[in-house]
């Protein structure tokens, strides 16, 4: 289940990678801004895509804690369980 | 002989004061113009507060004809016309009724104009009802609507245009007018900028999550430039306007003079080396300030006051650091710094012009205006500037030279240097 979420999340995040970062670089511990070099403004778009893909809603506070792929995965898991 | 450019008139429509007297008083005494906006709450905004000029108390017939007011639904046009006409009158000029004044022009900027009117139009168009748009849909929503309205009201016959460079717009308009006078293509330029109010302008920033969301029940504390607890800018709106004039023309007609615009600089960081669509390239900021100082024929040590861009985001400490590098000054030797955004938020395209009016009022009132909401200075700022240089209350110190900078999305910068006027 978790693996499935990771694949789905990776697919979303890869759309916002700069041209010189390959999607291979996306690991569970990857930091969005510092390691994947994603523009901070695009985090907002990633959240929206995640909301659509998992049919959940993320609050502002959830986004504040979302720095790595693992953070995002954990938040998604929690939201799905709370559904 | 080189042309000198002076400021002979000003007008302002700001969230914490309309007109020079009310606005000056609000800046002197630290009065906030940021309020809870019920409509933003209804629309589920995270940030439900904003700075919005209270024009309801004014008779718009003093500024517009009845026909012009019919169907007028463009707040930026209202703010811009109020500020622009007030500035013209304050300069002792009257509308040219017969022939246009070929020596007077306008550069009045905006980011987006008449969004509420545009919304009306979109609904009608989508309903297949385009014939019901009326005659003013275009003039209220074209970016240059604001300079077009003012141009007709005042009868200006020189260049009449609108510039747009995000939050740099206002300061850029002032420098564009300056250059036109300096190059002897005009004698007088009405310069300034306006920004619409409302959810359609502010929504995009709320979506970017760069606005404060924990101050909906304490709006006056929300805008915290230079504070350790700064958490985003409060959206604002309004307009500011200046009449720039060659000193020769000003003297010839015995006009009062608020100050001299010594020079300035406009550049871009090219979205390289740390610069992005929404973040500044520090090298460009430093160059912009240094070039403005050089063009003005002063030395960095002569600057008494900096009116920063300082929006109350995490970028404030970086801006202070860039000023320090550009001027080669720090600690107790640093100029006084203020940001008026603590009082009325970030008026976006109107920010630069409203803040230039405020900066110049410091000459007139012989004061350095205080800051609001930075009693807890950011530790990174304290490392660069002594706390005594960031006044919490207005100081009775008459500045001689003030540097004003504005920065905007797109990695664009503008810096203007004003001097108190000595004949």
UniProtKB/TrEMBL annotation, chain A:
Domain Carrier: 3-80
Record-linked Gene3D superfamilies: ACP-like
InterPro entries: ACP-like_sf (IPR036736), PP-bd_ACP (IPR009081)
Name of the featured protein: Acyl carrier protein
Automatic annotation (TrEMBL), chain B:
UniProt KW keywords: Acyltransferase, Cytoplasm, Transferase
Superkingdom of this protein's organism: Bacteria
Keyword Thylakoid carried by entry: no
KW Manganese (keyword) present: no
Domain Ketosynthase family 3 (KS3): 2-420
Compartments it resides in: Cytoplasm
SMART domains associated with the record: PKS_KS
Cited PROSITE patterns: KS3_2
Reactions accelerated catalytically: (3Z)-decenoyl-[ACP] + malonyl-[ACP] + H(+) = 3-oxo-(5Z)-dodecenoyl-[ACP] + holo-[ACP] + CO2; a fatty acyl-[ACP] + malonyl-[ACP] + H(+) = a 3-oxoacyl-[ACP] + holo-[ACP] + CO2
EC number: 2.3.1.41
InterPro entries the record matches: Beta-ketoacyl_synthase (IPR000794), Ketoacyl_synth_C (IPR014031), Ketoacyl_synth_N (IPR014030), PKS_Beta-ketoAc_synthase_dom (IPR020841), Thiolase-like (IPR016039)
Endpoints of the signal sequence: none
Main location: cytoplasm
Sequence similarity: Belongs to the thiolase-like superfamily. Beta-ketoacyl-ACP synthases family.
Assembly description: Homodimer.
PANTHER family documented for this protein: 3-OXOACYL-[ACYL-CARRIER-PROTEIN] SYNTHASE 1, POLYKETIDE SYNTHASE-RELATED
Record protein name field: 3-oxoacyl-[acyl-carrier-protein] synthase 1
């Amino acid at each position: 289940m978790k693996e499935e979420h990771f694949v789905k999340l990776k697919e979303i995040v890869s759309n916002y990678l700069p041209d010189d970062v390959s999607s291979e670089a996306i690991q569970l511990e990857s930091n969005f801004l510092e390691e994947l070099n994603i523009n901070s403004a695009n985090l907002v778009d990633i959240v929206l895509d995640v909301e659509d893909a998992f049919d959940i809603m993320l609050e502002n506070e959830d986004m504040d804690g979302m720095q790595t792929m693992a953070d995002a995965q954990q938040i998604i898991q929690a939201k799905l369980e709370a559904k | 002989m080189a042309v000198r450019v002076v400021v002979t008139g000003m007008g302002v429509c700001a969230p914490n004061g309309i007109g020079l007297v009310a606005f000056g008083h609000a800046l002197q005494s630290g009065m906030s113009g940021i309020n809870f906006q019920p409509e933003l709450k209804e629309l589920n905004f995270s940030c439900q507060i904003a700075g919005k000029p209270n024009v309801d108390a004014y008779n718009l017939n003093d500024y517009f004809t009845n026909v012009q007011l019919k169907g007028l639904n463009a707040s930026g046009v209202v703010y811009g016309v109020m500020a622009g006409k007030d500035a013209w009158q304050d300069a002792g000029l009257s509308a040219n009724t017969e022939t246009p004044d070929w020596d007077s022009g306008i550069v009045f900027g905006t980011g987006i104009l008449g969004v509420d009117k545009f919304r009306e139009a979109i609904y009608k168009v989508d309903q297949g009802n385009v014939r019901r748009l009326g005659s003013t849909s275009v003039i209220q929503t074209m970016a240059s609507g604001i300079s077009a309205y003012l141009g007709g009201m005042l009868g200006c016959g020189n260049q009449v245009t609108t510039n747009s460079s995000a939050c740099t717009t206002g300061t850029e308009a002032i420098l564009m007018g300056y250059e036109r006078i300096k190059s002897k293509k005009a004698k007088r330029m009405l310069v300034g900028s306006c920004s619409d109010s409302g959810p359609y302008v502010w929504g995009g920033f709320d979506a970017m999550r760069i606005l404060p969301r924990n101050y909906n029940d304490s709006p006056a504390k929300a805008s915290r430039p230079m504070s350790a607890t700064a958490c985003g800018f409060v959206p604002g709106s309004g307009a500011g306007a200046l009449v720039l004039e060659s000193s020769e023309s000003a003297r010839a007609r015995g006009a009062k003079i608020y100050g001299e615009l010594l020079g300035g600089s406009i550049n871009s960081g090219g979205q390289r080396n740390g610069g992005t669509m929404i973040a500044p390239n520090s090298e460009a900021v430093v160059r912009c300030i240094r070039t403005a100082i050089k063009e003005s024929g002063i030395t960095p040590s002569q600057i008494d006051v900096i009116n920063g861009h300082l929006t109350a985001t995490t970028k404030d400490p970086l801006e202070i650091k860039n000023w320090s590098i550009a001027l080669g000054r720090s600690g107790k030797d640093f100029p006084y710094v203020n940001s008026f955004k603590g009082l009325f938020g970030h008026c976006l395209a109107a920010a630069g012009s409203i803040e230039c009016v405020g900066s110049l009022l410091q000459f007139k009132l012989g004061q350095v205006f205080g800051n609001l909401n930075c009693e807890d200075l950011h530790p990174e700022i304290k490392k660069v500037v002594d706390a005594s240089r960031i006044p919490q209350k207005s100081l009775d110190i008459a500045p001689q030279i003030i540097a004003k900078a504005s920065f905007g999305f797109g990695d664009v910068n503008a810096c203007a240097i004003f001097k108190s006027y000595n004949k």
